[in-house]
Structures are given as structure tokens and as C-alpha cells.
């Protein structure tokens, strides 16, 4: 906003102190929690022949309080959503039943989402100042990782509901999705 966009660098402040040490004293009282809130909406397409699920659209709106650095906040949401999509669809730690040895211990066996597996995210920030801290901020660091898995799994279930599928475990790997489709076909549900 014009008039409030004034700035001074830390180095400029240090020059003005003429050899004195820089220090800051601040007092503030937190009067309760500062919970963020928001919504995540996901759209998937599923190939019924292979069980491959693809996230084709992902939108978030998060109330972050005052976004001190909107680009950084958006980046946190983006990274968290990518992690959450990975948790929902791809990442699966598998252990040998007899030895308890991790058998998905490398990226050759453990699928993580790559850029080409993710859509462009539509991220909106709603800034409703928090009233329980002096600068009006709310946490945002875990929004994507908390919101994405249920949004993605709900989208998968919504896509499979016409087949009679009403639940699937995470990660909704292609094999699990394909098996759910085949079980539904076996029950005589029309595709």
C-alpha cells in the first residue's frame, strides 16, 4: 500500500548505530491460540484400466491472519500440498513380513511426487487478522500437509462412487484403485 511501503535494510540501520550493538527488545502477550483455517478442493481423473489417479486441479483458500510475506506463505502451502498429495497417492513404506526389513528404502521403490505428477495449484490467502497476538499472524506451515490427504482421498472416492466404491486406504496407489474397481465390478455394479 502506498505510504506504508517504506523500508530500510538491516545494514543501513547498522551504519546509523555508529559502532553500537544492534539489539531489540519486544514485549507481547499472546491471549490464546491462533488457529488458521481454510479449505482444500481437489479434482482427480482415474484411468479405470490401470487404476492410475491424476490430480488435475487443486485449489486452496487459507486464512493466514496477516501474511507478512505472501510469497513465502504461498510457497509453504505449495510444498505442503505436494507432500500431502504424495502421502495420499504415492508414498508407501513397505516392510518385509518375515524380517521387518524396509523394502521401499530407495527412490527406485518409494514413489514421491515429481513436478510432472502435480497440477498448477490455485492458492488464495484470506487475511483476517488474528486477535490473540501483536502482529495478527496465524500459523500456515502445516496447512498443505493436513488439508491435502483428505481432499485427495475424498476426490478419489467421489470419482469411484458411481462404481460403488466408498472407501480406499492411503496411499491410493494404482494397484489399490484398480483392485477397488475390480471388486466393484465383481459385485455387479455398472461402470
Topology (SSEs and partners):
Elements: H1 10-16, E1 37-46, E2 53-63, H2 70-89, E3 121-126, H3 143-160, H4 174-186
Parallel strand pairs: 2-3
Antiparallel strand pairs: 1-2
Which terms would index this structure?
191 residues; alpha+beta; Aldehyde Oxidoreductase, domain 4; 3-stranded mixed β-sheet; 4 helices; 3 strands; 30% helix
Structure report:
The chain is of the alpha+beta class and 191 residues long. Helices cover 30% and strands 14% of the residues. It has helices at 10-16, 70-89, 143-160, 174-186; strands spanning 37-46, 53-63, 121-126. It has a three-stranded mixed β-sheet with strand order 1-2-3. The longest helix has 20 residues, at 70-89. The radius of gyration is 23 Å and the shape is elongated. The mean pLDDT is 89.
Amino acid at each position: 500500500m502506498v505510504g506504508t511501503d517504506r523500508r530500510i535494510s538491516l545494514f543501513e540501520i547498522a551504519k546509523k548505530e555508529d559502532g553500537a550493538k544492534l539489539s531489540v527488545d519486544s514485549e507481547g502477550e499472546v491471549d490464546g491460540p491462533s488457529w488458521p483455517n481454510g479449505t482444500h478442493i481437489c479434482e482427480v481423473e482415474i484411468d479405470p484400466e490401470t487404476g492410475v489417479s491424476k490430480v488435475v486441479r487443486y485449489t486452496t483458500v487459507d486464512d493466514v491472519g496477516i501474511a507478512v510475506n505472501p510469497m513465502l506463505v504461498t510457497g509453504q502451502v505449495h510444498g505442503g500440498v505436494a507432500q500431502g498429495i504424495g502421502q495420499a497417492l504415492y508414498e508407501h513404506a513397505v516392510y518385509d513380513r518375515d524380517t521387518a526389513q524396509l523394502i521401499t528404502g530407495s527412490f527406485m521403490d518409494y514413489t514421491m511426487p515429481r513436478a510432472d505428477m502435480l497440477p498448477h495449484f490455485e492458492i488464495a490467502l484470506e487475511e483476517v487478522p488474528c486477535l490473540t497476538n501483536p502482529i495478527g499472524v496465524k500459523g500456515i506451515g502445516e496447512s498443505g500437509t493436513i488439508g491435502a490427504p483428505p481432499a485427495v482421498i475424498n476426490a478419489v472416492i467421489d470419482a469411484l462412487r458411481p462404481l460403488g466404491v466408498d472407501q480406499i486406504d492411503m496411499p491410493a496407489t494404482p494397484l489399490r484403485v484398480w483392485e477397488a474397481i475390480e471388486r466393484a465390478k465383481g459385485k455387479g455394479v455398472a461402470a
